[in-house]
Amino acid sequence: MVERRPWTTALSHLVLLIGIAIVAFPVYLTFVASTHERSEIVQAPMSLVPGDQMVENYQTALTGTGSGPGSKAPVARMMFVSLVMALTISIGKIAISLLSAFAIVYFRFRFKMFIFWAIFVTLMLPVEVRIGPTYQVVSDLGMLNSFAGLTIPLIASATATFLFRQFFMTVPDELVEAARVDGAGPMRFFKDILIPMSSTSIAALFVIQFIYGWNQYLWPLLITTDEKMYPVVIGIQHMIAGGDAANEWNLVMATAMLAMIPPALVVLSMQRWFVKGLVDSEK
């Protein structure tokens, strides 16, 4: 039994508060900057009190009516592109990984282990090694500046395939035999038994992959040249085009705040499932 002492409790809370302050202060500073005019942000020191331009700045960012030298693509459109990209990548990765892991564990075919290890070895290849040939293929197929080009090359996931394979291997053989005796075919066993049993793992992977898809930068930077197909992360980069005085930092910060909202909502809404999927041992 662990003895609790008042000073250790106070120390742990102090460390926790310091950690929260370190993480939260840049976010608060971004929010404050998004509520001021551009001229007020470049002044030193910048005010740490929210200004009175919040509605105007966020409306201007969402509609793309700014007057700065950078990109003027509407942030609403960029967030839609990011949302489609994140949802397609996360759902696609989970669906393909479930099916591939199911095939590797429950079907017998030639070179099964070779195929599994071939998938697993792709984890050792950095993105920079694959990005050149992938770009060439996408370009030859005419998928530049398209949702297909943004999402299809990022859908496959060796990590998710490996995780689902390891989980499927823990399913008792008696359950498989019982399903076979009841007349359940492979796909019915997959749909009615394996997927419900994997729900917490699916939820945890969905959160991770959604954030991964939402924060994509290098790949969209290569294949998008049309402002209508900019994800919001790329949009922020293109909004910064001049010196400190020329950039509309209030709109850049408003865009950054808007870009944080969808991932934060996903994490908060699926927090319980996410934590359970990572730590639950009773599967």
Description:
This protein is 69% helix and 0% strand. The chain is mainly α and 283 residues long. The protein has one domain (75-279): MetI-like (MetI-like fold), CATH 1.10.3720.10. The longest helix is centred in the first third of the chain and has 32 residues, at 75-106. The protein is globular, with a radius of gyration of 24 Å. It starts with 5 loop residues before the first helix and ends with a helix. The mean pLDDT is 85.
Keywords:
69% helix; MetI-like fold; 15 helices; 283 residues; single chain; mainly alpha
Based on secondary structure, the structural category is mainly alpha
Largest sheet: none
Compute the number of helices. 15
CATH homologous superfamily placement? MetI-like
N-to-C series of helices and strands: HHHHHHHHHHHHHHH
CATH architecture: Orthogonal Bundle
The dominant shape is: globular
What is the class in the CATH system? Mainly Alpha
- Counting DSSP E segments of at least 2 residues, the number of strands comes to 0
Mean pLDDT: 85
What's the CATH topology name?
Answer: MetI-like fold
Rg over CA atoms, rounded to whole Å, is 24 Å
What is the percentage of strand-forming residues?
Answer: under 5%
**Low-confidence segments:** none
Q: Please estimate the helix content.
A: 55-70%
- Provide the number of structural domains: 1
Taking the alpha carbons of the first and last residues, their distance comes to 28 Å
